[in-house]
């Protein structure tokens, strides 16, 4: 008898998070979705899943999501961490408060749910965690200073986590989107992409689905670019 697989998507009410939830549901996962807007609950209802309205900046909300998921389904196989947008300004004009906000949005948005969900995966001796990051981790852009700084920290966190829990068959990888259609489109940005187009949320979701699958069972600690070739570093 096959075991029903369960995916938790944090910040999954819209954009790439919602696309990931839809793709995982289409691949046969039961999905549990957290969003602050209520859209996650509506989407979960569509997908015959579990929806919770709450914030990925609240440990209590994240714990409630995990508890309800385990109560209903008994396991968590996949955790997808999405997020919002942090402060943007010239680097010397970013205040301490804005840097702290950036850390909440781009780094602690992963650390908090992982701290809650990973012990269950270790207990199961199986699990995949996929974090939506940014293509500009290796070559940071001054357009997105708080994102670049804290997602570089996320890359380091991912390597440490992967090294620590690989023997427990718990994997962590980051997906690095470039210009994606969930963002406002501009001709200048489109022209900067070698493929000469924006990527789609569905293409990001397909990469997430692969990393969640058994076919990616030997992949951990990696940063996978989905950016149309805009960053071509090794």
List the helices and strands and how they pair.
Layout: E1 6-10, H1 15-26, E2 30-35, H2 39-46, E3 50-53, H3 59-73, E4 78-81, H4 96-106, H5 108-124, E5 127-132, H6 145-165, E6 170-177, H7 187-191, H8 201-212, E7 223-226
Parallel strand pairs: 1-2, 1-4, 2-3, 4-5, 5-6, 6-7
Helix pairs in contact: 1-8, 3-5, 4-6
Account of the 3D structure:
There is one protein chain. The chain is of the alpha/beta class and 234 residues long. The chain has a single domain (6-226), classed as 3-Layer(aba) Sandwich (Rossmann fold). Helices cover 43% and strands 16% of the residues. It contains eight helices and seven strands; from the N terminus they run βαβαβαβααβαβααβ. It has helices spanning 15-26, 39-46, 59-73, 96-106, 108-124, 145-165, 187-191, 201-212, and strands at residues 6-10, 30-35, 50-53, 78-81, 127-132, 170-177, 223-226. A seven-stranded parallel beta sheet has the order 3-2-1-4-5-6-7, with helices on both faces. α4 packs across α6. The longest helix is centred in the middle third of the chain and has 21 residues, at 145-165. It is globular and about 45 Å long. The N and C termini lie far apart (43 Å).
């Amino acid at each position: 008898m096959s075991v029903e697989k369960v995916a938790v998507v944090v910040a999954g009410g819209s954009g790439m998070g919602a696309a990931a939830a839809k793709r995982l549901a289409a691949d046969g996962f039961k999905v549990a979705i957290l969003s602050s807007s209520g859209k996650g609950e509506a989407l979960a209802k569509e997908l015959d899943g579990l929806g919770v309205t709450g914030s990925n900046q609240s440990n209590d909300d994240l714990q409630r999501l995990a508890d309800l998921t385990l109560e209903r389904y008994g396991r968590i196989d996949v955790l997808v961490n999405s997020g919002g947008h942090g402060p943007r300004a010239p680097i010397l004009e970013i205040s301490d408060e804005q840097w702290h906000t950036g850390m909440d949005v781009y780094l602690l948005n992963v650390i908090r749910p992982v701290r809650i969900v990973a012990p269950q995966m270790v207990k199961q001796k199986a699990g995949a965690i996929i974090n939506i990051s940014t293509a500009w981790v290796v070559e940071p852009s001054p357009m997105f200073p708080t994102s670049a700084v804290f997602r570089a920290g996320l890359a380091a966190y991912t390597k440490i986590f992967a090294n620590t829990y690989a023997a427990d068959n718990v994997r962590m990888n980051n997906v690095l989107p470039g210009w994606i259609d969930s963002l406002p489109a501009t001709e200048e940005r489109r022209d900067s992409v070698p493929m000469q187009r924006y990527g789609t949320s569905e293409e990001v979701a397909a990469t997430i689905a692969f990393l969640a699958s058994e076919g990616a069972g030997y992949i951990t600690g990696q940063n996978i670019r989905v950016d149309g070739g805009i960053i071509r570093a090794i």
